[in-house]
Write a structure and sequence with these properties.
The protein has 217 residues and is an alpha+beta fold. Helices cover 27% and strands 20% of the residues. The protein contains six helices and eight strands; from the N terminus they run βααααααβββββββ. The strands form two sheets. A four-stranded antiparallel β-sheet has the order 1-2-8-7, with no helix packed on it. A four-stranded antiparallel β-sheet has the order 3-4-5-6, with no helix packed on it. A hairpin with a 5-residue loop joins strand 3 and strand 4.
Length: 217
């Protein structure tokens, strides 16, 4: 279980540097990733890893598509649907490298992601834990009181949780998460069918909330 905010799939620290591409402002792209809730360092690392699997004269449009996939890998939830749709336009070695996956796992990953946004090949080894969210504000986290009363919302990957008298919406997937304060207590969603059942787990002594998938095979 993660002891601080972050995702279980982020095992290796990001350290790659992408290759400059004429007509593509990589610094501006990294700034946009941060503004959308992602990590600039992980974006650069993911893009560099993918670029290393492309020819030196790869078309700019292909690198732009790869950058969108790298932005999703860096935690930008808003790029998820577009990245999943465009992965087929990128050579598998480059797409897998940008996502930090073995090429042999790429097809299984994309297939599973269409119905289970929290799946990645290492989830079973992590006992179904996907990410930790929140944390104590005094240590740079989001909350001044421990989270409680967690519940699933109707949208995929969406949860609600209370800290003291404040309610928060949590949106998450395997790579990223986002917290938004809610104006009032939300209604819980009816249970959804399917193999994987994701929940938001809290403990009274912790300032973190964990996304956990009970069925983690």
């Amino acid at each position: 279980m993660i002891r601080r905010p972050g995702h279980q799939a982020d095992v290796e620290p990001p350290r790659g540097v992408p290759t400059p591409v004429p007509g593509l402002d990589l610094d501006r792209a990294a700034t946009a990733v941060v503004a959308a809730g992602g990590s600039a360092a992980r974006f650069r690392h993911a893009l560099a890893a993918g670029q290393a699997q492309l020819a030196a004269d790869a078309p700019v449009d292909l690198v732009v598509t790869l950058a969108g996939i790298a932005g999703w890998r860096a935690g930008v939830l808003g790029l998820r649907d577009d990245a999943l749709a465009r992965i087929v336009d990128v050579p598998p070695p480059a797409a897998a490298a940008a996502l930090g996956l073995a090429e042999a796992d790429l097809q299984a990953f994309t297939d599973r992601q269409r119905s289970d946004r929290f799946w990645w090949p290492g989830r079973t080894a992590s006992r179904g834990y996907v990410c930790a969210i929140g944390g104590f504000a005094g240590f740079g986290g989001a909350w001044t009181a421990p989270p409680a009363d967690a519940r699933s919302l109707a949208e995929p990957g969406a949860f609600a949780v209370r800290t003291a008298q404040r309610w928060w919406r949590v949106d998450a997937d395997v790579w990223g998460s986002r917290l938004t304060e809610l104006p009032a207590e939300p209604a819980a969603a009816a249970p959804r069918g399917g193999r994987a059942t994701a929940s938001l787990v809290t403990f009274s002594e912790s300032y973190l909330a964990w996304v956990h998938v009970a069925e983690s095979a």
